Amino acid sequence: MLMSKKLIYDIPLTKIAIRKGIKLPVELNNDLAYLCGVFAGDGSISIEKRNNQYKYYLTYTGNALDEKEFYHEIIAPRLRNVFGIEPKVKHNKRDNTYVSRINSKPIILFLTEIIGLPKGKKYDFLKIPELFLREESLVINFIRGLFDTDGCISFKKRDKPFPYYPVICLSSKSRKFLLQIAIFLKEMGFKFSKVYTYRVNDVRFKLGYNIISRIELSGHNNLKLWRDKVDFFSPKHLLKIKKYWKIAEGRLPYLC
Question: Which of 12, 34, 124, 154 has its CA 20 to 30 A from that of 237?
């Protein structure tokens, strides 16, 4: 039997939050789970002390080249639905990113204390929130939000002169987190070899490199299962599938 989706907690809304029309969820739902997946991927939560006062921030950062549509059509409507908020968006031309920042103590306390999202340096503490493990659809939506932001899909040529072989992948600094995701995907029927780790040269780090873990779901059977059970919301991912699947479908009879 599934546990109740109702949430019981005591986080008062501040006067500023009430004035802004901010609300907090009273039950678990798929939009909330999806947003938490997005935040686990391309989000960060910070609590900063300034002039003896604490500031509570949730920041989402995406690529301005191909994620503007994703933010306005997918993320923003869910932020309105779940939290009643319309955050301002800034185009940072220096690194060509699309940045949205929410400054709200109630929302941050809800996400960290009730849902369990990590604040500060998140990679040592990332996990599928335990509350979402109550129901498969909540975990699926969390994973969808994660893959929409930190995941990607590509089509490889392999032994043919055209890209036809799909590979869905997810990379993270947290091997433990990816192992948890991998176990859940395996239970859903996905086939992949293992979570593997590799080194990426990066001068921003003291050692001159960073260690990244990665999982890959390769092949048409995995893609079909993904479209059936998880799928993407990200327009850039869906456009790539539409483009290359059409190429493969026209040239590989066994896909028809």
Answer: 124
